[in-house]
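Record 1 of the preview.
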Amino acid sequence: SKDPRVLNGRRYFCLRDEFVQARQNPFREKPRRILITFGGTDDSDFTRQTLEAVLPLCRKQGIALSLVAGPGYAHKEALAERLEVLRKENGPEIVYTHATNVMSGIMEGCDLAVCSAGRTVYELAHMRIPSVILAHHIREDMHTFARPKNGFIYLGVQHPFQAETVRKAVERLLEPGLRREYYNRMSRCDFT
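->
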C-alpha cells in the first residue's frame, strides 16, 4: 500500500533555485537545438544510442545538439571517441558536458529534448521543452507526469533500445504543429 507520509508527483515537486531564475524558452517554428540527457549513470547508454538515432535528422535540418551525462556515466570513453569522429565529419554542432549542476543554463535555448523519466521531466516542463521520454526501468515507468497531456511523448521502458521508435518520435516533435501543442500544454505547468 502507498505510504501516506510520502508525497510525490507534480503537486509536490520543488523546483531547484537555478530554474526559478532561468529564462523559459520561447516557441520557435524552426528548432535550433535538441537536448539529450539520461541522468547520472545511464548504464544502458541511451545517450550515445539516442545521438546515433537523431543524428541524421539533425544533419538534414541543421539542428545543434547538447549532450549532458551525469558524473557516473559509464560510457564516457566510447562517447568521446564517437564525438571526435563526428567533429572531423563537420556535422552539426554538438556540445557535450558532465556539468549537471547548471542544467537550467543548458536547457535555455533548447527546443526539444530526449530524456529519462526522472525529476528532469518537471524541469523540462518548466523550461517549455517538449520532449521524448524513455524509462530506464520499471520504477521510472511508474512516474506518470511525462505523458502527452503535459507535453511529452512517452516511449516506456526501452530494453532493448529502439532507435527507429526514438527517431520517429523526435521527427514528430520537429514538426511545429505538435511541438507547439505540447509547448502550450507545458505552459499550464507552474512549479514556482
